Amino acid sequence: MATNQQETAIRPVQKMKLSLSNQGVQEQFRNLLKDRAPAFMASILNLFVADSYLQKCDPSAVIQEAAKAAALDLPIDKSLGLAYIVPYNDKPQFQIGYKGYIQLAQRTNQYKYI
Question: Is 13 exposed, middle or buried (0-12, 13-18, 19+ CB in 10 A)?
């Protein structure tokens, strides 16, 4: 019985690993992030492994949402609070945290203080 539960827990993570190893996906993140792409892709896997609700989502959909964060150059590490990938009814959604909005505003050099 325990073996079946472990196998079902492994399957979504294995699917994510396979999706991240796809050359097209790797090229997409290399184009967006240059030399930071491998670290960002590792953070996608870490986020996916740590969130059982996110594991119910399609890995390619999670990667698409992570690409939105990469395009804005916002890390998806929950502890930083800049950007999140949140599952809603088994569909992931990219959300910018308030710290992410502050960082994006500061990048414009239009603000001295926020």
Answer: middle
**52: confidence class by pLDDT, cuts 50, 70, 90:** very high
Per-position DSSP letters for 2-70, written without gaps between them? HHHHHHHHHHHHHHHHHHHH-HHHHHHHHHHHGGGHHHHHHHHHHHHHH-TTGGGS-HHHHHHHHHHHH
Q: Running DSSP on this structure, what letter comes out for residue 99?
A: H
**For position 1, what pLDDT does the model report?**
46
CA distance 69 to 86: 12
How far is 85 from 95, CA to CA, in rounded Å? 6
> Which pair of structure tokens corresponds to residue 86?
């949140």
Nearest in space to 58 (alpha carbons), one of 94, 22, 15: 15
Average pLDDT over residues 32-53: 94
